[in-house]
Request: fold
Amino acid sequence: MNEASVTACGTFDVGQIPSVPGVVLALIDACNDRNQGFDELARIARRDMGLCARIFAVSRPWPAQGRVGRLAEVISSLGVETVRAIAVTSSVQQFFSRLDPGMGRWLGTFWRRSLGCAHGARMLADLTHYEFPEEAYFSGLFHGLGKLLFLNRDPESYQQLLVQSANEAELAQGERHIFGHTAIEVGAMLIRQWDPHSMLSDAVLYQSETVDAVRDAPHLVRLINLACRFNSQAKITHDLAHDGQQLLGLAPSELEEIQQKIEAGIVADLTGILVVDDDNEQGGPLVDGDEVRVALARRVRESAQLDGVRRHLAGTAQFKDTLMAVFQDCGTLFGVYRCVCFLSDDTGSLLTAEASTCLDKIQMNEFCIRLVAEGSLIARALLERDRLSTGDIAKPMLSVVDRQLARLLGCEEFICLPLYSESEDIGVLVIGGAPADLLRLREQDDLFRYFGEAVSQVLGVRRYALRNLQQAVSQAQERHQNLITKLVHEANNPLAIIKNYLQVLSVRLTDQGKVTEQIDILNEEIGRVADIIARMQEAPVVERGQGAVDINELARDLIGVFRVSHFTPRGIVVVEDLDRDMPRIMTDRNNIKQVLTNLLKNAAEGMAAQGRLTVSTRDQINVNGSPFIELVVEDDGPGIPREMVDAMFRPVRSRKGGRHSGLGLTIVKDLVAELNGSVSCSNKSKGGARFVVMLPRKLE
Reply:
């Protein structure tokens, strides 16, 4: 096409081309049915050129590396809501009312031939092993797309041209006179705008070329050229058999078999969609009728109402506001105002009344309904996922809960609308009213069901968001509390050391009365500081930094401190087995100090008097090919109970005087993890416990 034609093509709106009303209606109903999958939506949509054109136009660029993918995959990528909107828009924009009565039959014949060409192209693709059979199907379906675009652009002129043209050549000449280009050119150009990579647009463009002209063309071009010839003839003629042999190497018998299958495919696709009129003198099936028009109008109205419901519910701020908006929409749509919303608990075993238009809080708190099949009508509705009414059951057969709720609602009957998603039972909306009110609900059964699905969708999203928020808050509180607990424990260690030193000084200065009194005051003040730390409600995170640390020197210093305060008074012997060649490593001194402090303190508290404690270091330990240093604290205490070994570094209640338990080891694990190291514990073969800390050997 020339540049002028390309520019003009952009003015054709694929969204305005007519669709088959029966297909549109079926697609809307399938979109409204949450049990229908994408394959079923695709099976319905693929029968109509207009719907497929709109779906592909919206989803461009097409998937599958520039090739037309499976329609089900395209619909899946768009989502059901988008496809429903396309179908509803198609029904609103139906163009049939602008056509002469006779054009309805022309359209019926047109769609029948489009389906025939699509089925024929798909079968030829399978028979000749074409790699992209879906592409062949849509090439055949879209082969006459330009005619619908012209019919939409200038219905009066194009209808007249269709009636007056004796053949396709004369029609093409008239199209070029009126529009400046042919319908085939416009259709091909529009498809190229969607997908500039595949041969689909070329297959449409060269559909009417001679066999000699396309004999050496790509597979898809030859395939559609033959499918269009198939579609224009009622039987396999000598010329058609010759064309099949020349274009795809097919025998006449293969063509005849395909032709029979094409007719069967068309009949299956159009059953219940097009109306066959045996008394019609003009021939051709009708594309619509009063019944389908009324049904489409009803679906459009329902879709508009449900969109309003979704926007109304989505605009609420709090969950309670959402429930009250549901009650308002019940009044607006169905004229019923006595409602109670029951929601399932987190266990999925109970229903509790959460909001109502006519029950007070005290009354609602009295209702806690078990989700069992033999229980209340309300529970049954959710378990069966079906709308149930008290009017369908004899009053004596109703449970006391059902009869009591009807009395509190002040109504003769109520209906239970289950609210659920695929993965969750959300609750039940109970609506009360007079028999006439519930009869009106039954007459609007489809809208009532769609309303329940819209409410379920919004409430499900809101509950999911609310649970996530609550979980996030709970996790933040837990992290905060753990931080406080660890900091308090960490702060108490130096305070304990200071108190121990004061005790040592007090013993050594027993003859200094004034000094002893001052030491007692210091002990008392340290106790007050410990109490204040224990009552802390929040604490800042301590910033840590890397530096060069002599592990051996740090170990000797801490052993010296604990020797005075813990080891010597109890007769514990400490052995230092430190690697003399240990280099200074880049690490966090405070972390290492706290780790070793906790391990020494843990060992001292777990050992009996007169025990033996060994602290050792080793350089150049190979861990999975990387160099580490090793810090080991071993004692000859009672060891670690077998059942506690795996849980050694989890936070448990400390048992002073017991064996290696408490928050200190949890802190050790966290601090070592911050240094990209590891810590482990085990029992020694001759009794006692062994704690091993591995730290990355990162030098200055």
